[in-house]
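We were asked to recover a plausible sequence for a given structure. The inputs and outputs are reproduced exactly as logged, with field labels preserved.

PROBLEM: sequence recovery
POSITIONS: 171
GIVEN STRUCTURE:
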């Protein structure tokens, strides 16, 4: 099925087919609109929240934990990075290099949201992240822990595991 240039691509098949589409970025950039996330209605502490179907949905749902004072501003590049990381999760991409300018949520998506998203379904997943500056690596680790420790994450994933209290330090 050929993708129209006026609509973003849909995932009717394999993620790898979608990622190989040369129109992926073009379609998103032509149709993207800035959208602000609306605050979600709080659920009771015992009611499990619905699990996000993708990393992109996870980022939108967990945004309020990491950046409580800032609205989520959507754009095509966020969806694109999340789509590629979903392919990593599915085992369809073994090596991934993300090369986008500073200030486009690269660190937040890859080093903060992605580990928390993976650990929700696969607690055995291991990931090593780093940065040229220790302050940035610590910042991202703290934000990832904030997501995991949040009431939203605990209610959504109800993990049978917990973060080690003796490792709950900044450095």
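RECOVERED SEQUENCE:
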């Amino acid at each position: 099925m050929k993708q129209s240039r006026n609509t973003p691509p849909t995932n009717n098949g394999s993620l790898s087919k979608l990622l190989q589409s040369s129109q992926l970025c073009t379609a998103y950039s032509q149709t993207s609109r800035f959208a602000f996330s609306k605050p979600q209605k709080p659920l009771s502490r015992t009611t499990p929240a619905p699990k996000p179907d993708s990393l992109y949905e996870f980022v939108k749902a967990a945004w309020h934990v990491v950046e409580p004072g800032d609205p989520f501003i959507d754009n095509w590049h966020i969806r694109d990075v999340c789509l590629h990381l979903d392919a990593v999760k599915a085992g369809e991409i073994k090596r991934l290099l993300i090369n986008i300018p500073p200030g486009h949520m690269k660190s937040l998506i890859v080093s903060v949201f992605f580990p928390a998203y993976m650990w929700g379904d696969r607690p055995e997943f291991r990931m090593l992240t780093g940065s040229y500056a220790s302050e940035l690596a610590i910042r991202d680790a703290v934000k990832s822990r904030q997501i995991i420790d949040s009431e939203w994450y605990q209610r959504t994933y109800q993990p049978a595991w917990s973060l080690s209290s003796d490792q709950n330090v900044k450095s």
